[in-house]
Amino acid sequence: MRQIQWAARREISTAQAKAHARRLAYDQRVRAGQRRLERLTNPGHGEVLAELGRTTLHEHVLIFAGETIPLAGLRVRFEQSGTKSHLYLDLPNTGVRHEMYPHADHPEDDVRAFAVRAQNAAVDENAFLEQQKHLIAEAQAELAAAKDDTAPHDEARRHLTQVTQRHRKDTRLGAALADLDALRDRWQHESGRRPR
C-alpha cells in the first residue's frame, strides 16, 4: 500500500514540477519581451558611455553642463587653444553649446577621445531612431508570439490533470486499504486488539 501511495505522490509531484517549470519559462519569455519593447519605446538616457568633467555621455543623450541634450542630429567638434581644449556641440535648430577643459584637469587626448566617442554615439543614435519603428514592430510581434506560445505549459497542465485523475480513480489503493482493514479486523478478532 505504501508503495502505491509513494509511486502516486512521486508521479504527481514530478508532473507538478514540470508544469511549474514550464509556467516559469513562459513567464520569463513574456517578461523579457515586455522589457525589450519598453526599452525600445522609452529608451530614456541609456547606459553611461563616458564622462568628462561636468559632461556625461549616455547612449541616447548627453548631459552637458547640467543640460540634457538628445544625441539625435547632434554634431560634436573639438578645438585646441593654448592650455585649453574646447568641446562644441552643434544642436539642430537650437544653436551651439561650448565647454572648456583646461589641460591641467583634462589632457587634450582625453577631450579629443571624448569628442570622437560623443560624435560616434550621435551617429549610432541617428541609426537607432531610423530603425526604431521597425524594431518596435518586431518586438511587438515577438511579444505577441511569446504570449501565444502556451502549448508547452498547457501540455504540462493537461498531463498533471491526467495523472491526478488517474490516481484518484486508481482502485489499487482502495483494494489495498480494504485488504489491510480485513487483516486488522481478523487480527482484532483473534487477539482482541486492533493494530494501527
Detailed description of the structure:
This protein starts with a helix and ends in a 5-residue tail after the last helix. Helices cover 62% and strands 20% of the residues. It is rod-shaped and about 115 Å long. The chain folds into two domains: 2-40 and 150-191; 45-148, PH-domain like. The chain is an alpha+beta fold. The chain contains four helices and seven strands. Helix 1 (2-41) crosses helix 2 and helix 1 packs antiparallel against helix 3. The strands form two sheets. Strands 1-2-3-4 form a four-stranded antiparallel sheet, covered by helices on one side. A three-stranded antiparallel sheet has the order 5-6-7, covered by helices on one side. Strand 1 and strand 2 form a beta hairpin. 12% of the residues are buried. The chain has helices at 2-41, 108-148, 151-169, 171-191; strands spanning 48-52, 55-58, 61-64, 67-70, 75-81, 84-91, 95-102.
> In angstroms, what is the radius of gyration?
34 Å
What coarse outline follows from CA principal-axis ratios?
Answer: rod-shaped
Average pLDDT, all residues: 89
Q: In the residues, how many domains can be counted?
A: 2
Which fold name corresponds to the CATH topology of the largest domain?
PH-domain like
